[in-house]
Amino acid sequence: MSKETTLAYIKDIALRLSDSNIYGGASAMIGAGFSKNAEAIGNKISPPDWGELASDMYIELYPKPSNEENIKTWESNKLIKTSGKNTLHLAEEYITFFDRNKMNLLIEKNVSDEMFIPSSLHKRLLYQNWTDIFTTNYDTLLERTREAVFLKKDYKVIYSKDNLPGSRGALPRIIKLHGSIPNVRPYIISEEDFRSYPQKFAAFVNTVQQALIETTLCMIGFSGNDPNFLNWHGWLLDNLGENCPQIYLIGLFNDLAQIEKEIFKERKIALVDLSELLDGTEVNKFAAAYDKFFDYIRSEERRV
Fold first, then answer.
1. d(Cα 141, Cα 159) in Å, to the nearest integer?
2. Cα–Cα–Cα angle for 300, 274, 152, rounded to 5 degrees
3. I want to staple 29 with a disulfide (CB 3.0 to 4.6 A). Which of 35, 71, 134, 154 is the partner?
4. Which residue from 302, 280, 274, 276 is spatially nearest to 121, judged by alpha carbons?
5. b/e per residue 12-28 (b: at least 16 CB within 10 A)
6. CA–CA separation, 64 vs 75, rounded Å?
7. What is the CB neighbour count within 10 angstroms for residue 42?
8. ∠47-51-55 over CA atoms, to 5°?
9. What integer best gives the mean pLDDT of the chain?
10. What is the rounded distance in angstroms from the CA atom of residue 209 to the CA atom of residue 204?
11. Integer Cα distance of 63 and 74 in angstroms
């Protein structure tokens, strides 16, 4: 992968954002990684990602042993259970051992939605001409960003599958796929939640599939082993098969092994590696990478 490849992908996205009638539109799906750009107003540094949320579940389910010899095994098991799709099984264990209400409280306490406010990057995200924005995040950062930018760019927020019929109109939508703090439950998090999601929330799955057919889907804030990413892409492949168009996965992927990159390529996932845009002097490489991404989008749009 090279800077030229990354810039070529960004140019394609910029063209789609600049004129959907000519180039075809672009839709965004936003994951937990993008919430890391929020500004803290409390004592937490940033909202949790999946691994951090799973870590708290693990510690409650499996208290750390006092015996030094057993700690190594505990740490090893923790690494396994809080990685990739294993986190979904861990969440299933947590709900079974405690209950769904305790899981809801754990999510709300850890996300601490009221302790963070949208940053300039959230505004830059919403200023883009997305056909729709989907999000798997429980926080309300995108909705609150919408309140800050609506004079320049407005969106309709969809919290429930029941709100989808007739929602397609002049405004693009922000569609909350996995629940929203504090009132829109269940929060989709466990193995069973994901297993039954295509049946219980078929309207949401169909809407994302339609967006994938009509526009280019840009996934932002997801890692390659994020369970949300893995499940959504799996459902799309299951339903669209060989007709599944290319998806852009946007983030920092310089640490990915070559074999992992080849797997993504075979699955029609184009890695837009923003690490190619950095020079190594950045204090916060993630925020800097997204800022450069939006800078390149804007400069390309001006050329159209």
1. 14
2. 50
3. 134
4. 274
5. bbbbbbbebeebebbbb
6. 9
7. 9
8. 100
9. 92
10. 9
11. 9
Burial 161-195 (b: 16+ CB within 10 A, else e): beeeeeeeeeebbbbbbbbbbeeeeebbbbbebbe
Could you report the per-residue pLDDT of 135-163, keeping only the tens digit for each? 999 999 999 999 999 889 999 999 998 99
End-to-end CA distance of the chain: 26
Taking the whole predicted model, whether its pTM rises above 0.90 is answered as: yes
Structure-block tokens of residue 111 = 């996300």
Asked if 261 and 1 touch (Cβ cutoff 8 Å), the reply is yes
- Please give the structure tokens belonging to residue 241: 């098969």
In whole angstroms, what is the distance from residue 185 CA to residue 140 CA? 14
The pLDDT score that the predictor gives to residue 26 is 96
- DSSP three-state, residue 277: helix
d(CA 197, CA 106) in angstroms, rounded, equals 21
Looking up tokens 């890391």 gives: 36
Q: How far is CA 52 from the centre of its chain?
A: 15
Question: Tokens 């951090």 — which residue?
Answer: 52
Tokens of 104: 């809801």
Residue 135: strand pairing partners: 30, 176
> Could you tell me the two tokens for 251?
């983030």
Number of H helices, E strands in the chain: 14, 9
